[in-house]
Amino acid sequence: MNTFTHKKQQLYLVLSGIFIVNALLAEIIGVKIFSLLPLLGRDDNLTAGVLIWPVVFVTTDIINEYFGKAGVLRVSYLTMALILFAFGVIYLTTKLPPAAFWLDVNKTDNLGRPFNIDFAYQSIFRQGLGIITGSIVAFAVGQVLDATIFAALRKATGGRYVWLRATGSTLVSQLVDSFVVLYVAFYVFGNWSLQQVLSVANTNYWYKFAAAILLTPVLYLAHFLIDRYLGPEETSELQEEATANVSV
Q1: Tens of pLDDT, residues 141-193
Q2: At a CB cut-off of 8 Å and minimum separation 6, what does 230 contact?
Q3: Where are the beta strands (DSSP E) in the chain?
Q4: pTM: predicted TM-score of the whole model, two decimal places
Q5: Which residue spans traverse the membrane (predicted)?
Q6: Distance (Å, rounded) from C-alpha 141 to C-alpha 146?
Q7: Which CB contacts under 8 angstroms, 24+ apart, belong to 232-240?
């Protein structure tokens, strides 16, 4: 195996690892809804999962830049399979009978109030089952849109304007993702009103919009570091391959 092939494989492995772990974490912590600006008395609510989604879509754009649409979809499909596996295991653990001593030592909270830790465990993780359904649908649609729009913009601009294809693909794909995931997870499978879904989805989207803009320098820094790691000629070769595979 030559040095370039090894570096290319290592790069794809690292980027895929970052993509997968952040996507999986976002799904797990997405059951928590928090208020973004409680001190201002505003109703700006977000799912905790959106905090690390910017890492996912920046990584998506980097993978697309060097490995094309096929590279993005390959890791996206793998991620969906792993998320399903993770939540399948989590669901099975909610069915396990709790140990009596575990319930006993955790029967009150820090203030002495009655507390059922097994009920809390099931409430948190089974809530995630609705989210996983919505997320898989939204994730699949969003990633295909992101990869397709990114590739189309790269082709249209002749490989220039990294910020345009990265930001443009993210803004469109996340518009779909933000609304679909919450609608399926909390309206179809949950107990939210449609108004609550639209309110949180709207805030989620504008957070992702701002993050996409603010993370543009990070995208250029990643390009700089990867180009130095691969070398100028090898970088050009890899990007040409990614562009050539745009129709995959």
Answers
A1: 777 777 777 777 777 776 676 667 777 777 777 777 778 777 877 787 777 88
A2: 4, 7, 8, 11, 238
A3: 33-35, 45-47
A4: 0.78
A5: 12-34, 46-63, 75-94, 129-153, 174-194, 206-226
A6: 9
A7: 234/4, 234/7, 234/8, 235/66, 237/4, 238/8, 238/66, 238/67, 239/65, 239/66, 239/159
